[in-house]
Structures are given as structure tokens and as C-alpha cells.
Amino acid sequence: MHRVVIIGAGFGGLAAARTLAGKPVEVTLVDQRNFHTFLPLLYEVATAGLDPGDVAYPVRAVIGRVANTHFRLGTVTGIDWKEQLVCFAGVDDGHDATSARCADDLPFDSLIVGTGAIANFFGVPGAADYAHPLYTLDDARHLRNHILLRLEEADSARAHASDGTLNFVIVGGGPTGVEVSGAVAELLDMSMERDGFRFDRSMARIVLIDGLDHLLDPFKRSAQNYAAATLMRRTVDLRLGARVSRVSPSEVELNDGTVILTRTVIWAGGVTVNGSAASTLGTPTTASGQLVVDSDLTVPGHKNVFAIGDAAAIPSAPGSDHTCPQLAQVAIQSGRHAAGQIVALVTGEVPAPFRYRDKGIMATIGRRAAIAQLRHGLLLRGTTGWLAWFGLHLVYLVGYRNRLTVFVNWTWRYLNWTSGPRVIVGIDPDTAIKSPGSPSE
Amino acid sequence: MHRVVIIGAGFGGLAAARTLAGKPVEVTLVDQRNFHTFLPLLYEVATAGLDPGDVAYPVRAVIGRVANTHFRLGTVTGIDWKEQLVCFAGVDDGHDATSARCADDLPFDSLIVGTGAIANFFGVPGAADYAHPLYTLDDARHLRNHILLRLEEADSARAHASDGTLNFVIVGGGPTGVEVSGAVAELLDMSMERDGFRFDRSMARIVLIDGLDHLLDPFKRSAQNYAAATLMRRTVDLRLGARVSRVSPSEVELNDGTVILTRTVIWAGGVTVNGSAASTLGTPTTASGQLVVDSDLTVPGHKNVFAIGDAAAIPSAPGSDHTCPQLAQVAIQSGRHAAGQIVALVTGEVPAPFRYRDKGIMATIGRRAAIAQLRHGLLLRGTTGWLAWFGLHLVYLVGYRNRLTVFVNWTWRYLNWTSGPRVIVGIDPDTAIKSPGSPSE
Fold it and tell me: DSSP assignment, residue A377?
């Protein structure tokens, strides 16, 4: 039986695994986590709109009953190209850790690499240490705890308006930055209204920074203007054409010398490729670090190895120099295509090059305000945009149960907001209070 | 205005705060966490039946809109009896940690102490270090991650039946021990059926240990027998009349010399009073460490200081030597009573002694099996008992939104179980895999 190993259970890897279900191949899907993370909604977890469990879906719940597919939790430590083996360290918290590395060989006839992306701090001093990225579920949990603790701190007599406790700086005006900014504003409003905080809402500042002179670069100008106007109406302070030059635990500095006091810098400044994955693979990468792939998604020199999703620089059409954006849709479509190529290989069908079908882009700016830029330039915004965004995300959430929970949570929040999941979990209370510098965060 | 400080937002503290809402007093409610934990359902979180957010309810969502009540997140560090101050360290992860302690004084005219209980390891060697207690939300999260990682480990080629990876030992045959045992059995069954694990279910052993010759001591014999028979049918191995004499990372030893290989010891062996709370207060305690209270719930020597819930040795009736059990109902009723006493004090009404109204006891043994022992000896069991248990817990869950989410989760799980919240969250994947001994757990 033709053996396929898929590295990564993101949108791409899961789409590939689902495409290969029941096909005449034997699939092993590996990931460092036992769950798929629905990345487009991470910002909702970070701003206490959703619970972590709402955006995390157990991989085994997706493929557990598929006979030709097996999941393995662990880390890929290398590739043995000669023997065609993925070198793998599975779960073993115990007995002989030294021999655990590379203890498990996963032989493959075809390999799909969907290792995704990580936050790109662009070498800004202090950013990697003090800014909060938003690319994993743990990132989102930590950020949520951090924000909620700042509100509690501001509520106590010990906090002062002047020390930046209630200043929230978001770096990056793409969809994530816009969504986080809007959601933080909403969290503040609702907290003031419902949660009995005794600080002055006008003490709080939300600052969104981007180096370009507009937000949401890939959107049309009218959508960009709508987003900017909506954010400003929600008290978000826009700093366009500005760049962050330094981040410290208590402030950020911009390239024009402006210093903003803040203890919360949210980094939505862009993503880069998981470097260790690329170096493990050892195939060519682009200047930005993405894996180079041919039009059929194979990596140079290995016609049985496919790179998909954020990890790969995927030509948007055969022969095009233009590469696909780093979107869930690209990951899903490329994952399906790679899986289809493998089936073609096995069954002797004719392989085909990958061609991205653009289904549009979306961003939300809070309740009742979102923009959806669909094909043929159709633009939805305001409540219509929000409903489109809401519906699409519900449909795409992996698995029915999560969709239902998210629906209940959201609908309830939308109608009431009395009790969002605004709990600070996973911080030892003693640690959170006794240890300055908060290693627990 | 008469100032009331309530320490602890458990069942008792929250009931007291609610009773005082709108009354002619000024209330400050303090807790180390910003959420109330619905303790009776913690075992569901530990066994991946519910998400942590389902059993955690933000305190501010309960009292945020009550004008005469303020919540403070932080730690009580002492009581100044002379000045009638609660010494308090609020949230401040930053600037001057040394001065943070006792920085905030909370003056009180009346004080309610509801600091709850902690796990009692009874001095068993190794228990405090290696057994998993189940008394906080973090306990439950850690235990869930630990159990799910054991299943992943067993699924890998590196795990062997003989090393105890799939042995789960539960210490204590009270409601918590019985509930955890049943839920672990259920988790194993469902994981095998739905999640594509490739180990042999018969390799797994669940052992429930209790020093008495029966389970569920306060229940009637017929209920005890029903629970025992149900657990045995669900493959739980009962070791009654046995005591644990030692716990290590890889095994437990019983007092008869039996050694059981296991990496998962769940400690449901009993609770004791949070010692630091009692020593902070400095008033008399019983031999078991509970705060001594008079029949009106005041502590000796302080007619304006009340102790409630698990923290106090509450006479079940005025003058009785018999003390109330450590149950949510006792905490709620005593919290309400203490608050009522304070209102009586302020408004010049006649105070009254506390009298516990027993509403019955319950325990579940899994889906469709529970026992409910109501007043007048009425006993419900099986599906009827389960429905009674389910309904009561839904009604008592604090707040409507949680009730709804829990209802959706549970109902869905009950009907399907395809996708319980079986995600391993809050463990850095690298740490989980690279570091033997798992500090992350």
C-alpha cells in the first residue's frame, strides 16, 4: 500500500487527510498538538469572546474513524531522504527521553508538508520578547489573560492612567490587526457596561499601527476607508505610515521617535515560515523563507513531496510569478490538490497543476460591522458583511459540535454579552500576583 | 455605610454577595481568581467531557451590575483586628512588587470568610508530589492533559501494556472518586470507538481504592451496592478496605504490599481546610483544621466575623455536636445565613441561628447512571437518578449562558460523543514531548 505522511493538521493537512480518506493509500497524519486550531477566530479567544475549546478541534474527532488514516502526536525531527523516512519523536514524557528522539520512523512513499507559519517580528528589538503574537491557541490564551489582568489592575487603586496599563497597541493593519483592534474596543465597552469596573473608560487607548498609509492592503480603497472610519468611531487611534522601532515591557517606540506607554503590544505584523520545518526538509526556500514549489506543489528534486498552505510559495496559476496569499482557502485548496496528485500517482491518472480559485477575503471590525470582498469586486459591508462573515465562519468551522457551540456562544454574546468567557484560566493565582514580570504569562 | 468584606467567590461567598445585593451595606468580594468554579462538574473537565470554560463563571458577570458590590482580584495577606482591616495584595504584575504586599487595606465592619478547602493527602508519602488532586480548574485541566497524553502514548509503538501507562488509579470512594472512575471508563470506551486509537482497550485498568468496605459512605447500602455493581460492569476494579501507603511517578503501593504500576493517580481522598486562610484569621480550629463557629456562624471572639462553607465546622443544628458535610448546599445556605445576619445587625432585626436543610445527596456513575438520595429516604437511581442529577446541576450552574452551553455540550455528547473537548491545551508541545517528568503538567 502506498504510504502517505502528512506533517501538520492545519487547514491544509486536514484537507489533504480528508481527501485521502478511503483512497487506496495508507495515511499517517502527524502534529505537535492533538487538535486543529481554527486560526481565523483566534482573535476572539484573545479578546474573551470565545473559549479556547470553541476554536480547537481534536484531530482524532475528524479522522478517528477513517480506516486508512492514523494520527500521531509528536514532533518531526528530520527526514531521511535515502530511506524515505520521516524521523519522529512521539509522546513519551517518561522513561528514556534521550532515546526518544528519532525513535519512531515513519516510512513514506509520498510526503505532504503543511507546517504553516509563525509570527514575523522583522527583527524589531524587543518584539519577540515583549510583544504578544497571535498565531497559536496558547498565544490567544496568554493574551486574553494578560488583557483581563490589565483591566483588573486598572480597577485597583494601584493603577494610574499615566502608566499605560490601559493602553493597547496593535502592530499591523491587516485583517488580524483590524479584527483585534475592534474586538479590544468592544471588550472594553462591554466590560465597563457590565462588569462593574471602576476605572475611567476614557483612560483606555487602543492604537493601531501600520507602515502603509491605509489598512487592509489587499482590499479595495472603499473597504479600507470603511474599516478606518469604523475603527475610529470605536475609539481606535490609527497611526498609519508609522513603524515600530522598539518594544519594551512598558512602552513602544515608533520610527518617528514617538513613545507610547503600554504593557500590551499585540503583534499582528505578519507571518513567516516555520524555519525549523524548512531546515528539516532542506529544500530551496524563497527570500521570505517559504518553501519553493513547482506548479504541481512538489518541492524541487522530489516529485513525491508536496508543500502546501502557508509554508509554501505557491504560484497562483501555472507559470505565474505571483504567489498565493497566506489564507485558509489557499491551504485547503492546496491540501486537496496535493492529495489528489497522490491519488493520481497511485491510480495512474493524469496529474494536473494547481490553480487557486479566489473566493474572496473578509475581515470583521466587531459586532455588526465587517467587510467581505467577493469575486468580481462585489463588496459587502456593515451588518450585511458581518452576517456573511459570521455564516461563512460557522460553515467552515471543522465539525458540527464546535459549530453549534460557537453558534450558541456567539448568538448569546451578540444578544446579551452578560457573560462572555472572561475567565483568567491557566495562571496560578499566586504566581500571577506574587511574581512581577509574570513568567506565567 | 456598613462595610462587608467577603473572602472567596465559591458557592458560599457568592451566595452571600447575592443576598447582600441592594441591601444597605457596601460589599467588597475578593478572590484569587476572577471566576467562580462549579466544583461538582470538575471531574467532567478532567475527563474531557466539558471544557474548562463550561464550569468557570466570571465573578464580575454575577455582581458586576450590582451597585453596592465591588470585586477585587488578589490575595488576602492578613487581618488587622485592631483596625478592622483585611490586608490585601491586588493584581500588579509590575512596578514595585516588594511594596505590593499589604498595599491595599480593605476596611470592614463585618467579614465573611469562605476560603473553602484543599485536597487532603493525609501525609501519604509521594501523594502531594505525584497524585493529581481535583479541586481547582487548573487541577482539572492538568489531569485532562495528563490522561489524554497517556492515551496518545499508549497508541504509539513505544508504549507497552506492562508499564502501567493505561492504568488509572483513583483514591477515594466518595462521590468524586466514583464519578471520576465512571467518567474515565466512559472516556476510554468512547476514545476506542471514535478516536482511532490502536491500543488494546483490555490493556487499560481503572482501579478505585477506598479504606472502607463500601463506596459512597453517606449513602444507603442499596445505593452503595448499585454504584459498585455499575462501576464493575464498566470494568472498574474495586479495591475496598485498602489504603494507599505510597505514591511514586510510576506506581502506587497499598497497605497490604500490593504494587500497582500506574502513571496516573487521581486523588479524591478527601479535603482539608486551606491552612493559610485559617492561620491568617488566627481564630480557633477543630482537630481537622476547620474554623470553629458558633451556631450563628460567627467565629469565637468576633461577633462580626462569619465563617461559611467548607472552611467552617458548622453545627448542623443549634447546639448539635454534629457538623455539616462539605457540600455546595451547605456553603450556599451558610453564605446566605451569614449575609442575613449582617443585614439583621444593620437593620436592627433579630438574628437567628443557622439550621442546615438537607436537600439530599447525589453522585453520577456515567451516562444514564446516577444515584440521588433525597429527603425522607427517597432514592432515585439509573436513568431516573441521572436525569435528576443532570437537571439539578443545570439549574444550579451559575448564570444562564453557562447553563445553555453546558446543556448543548452535554446533550450533544450524550447523543453523539463524536467530538468532546478532547484537546490538550496549555502544554507547550515542545515541553510536553522533550521534557521527561513534565513540568508542564
Answer: G
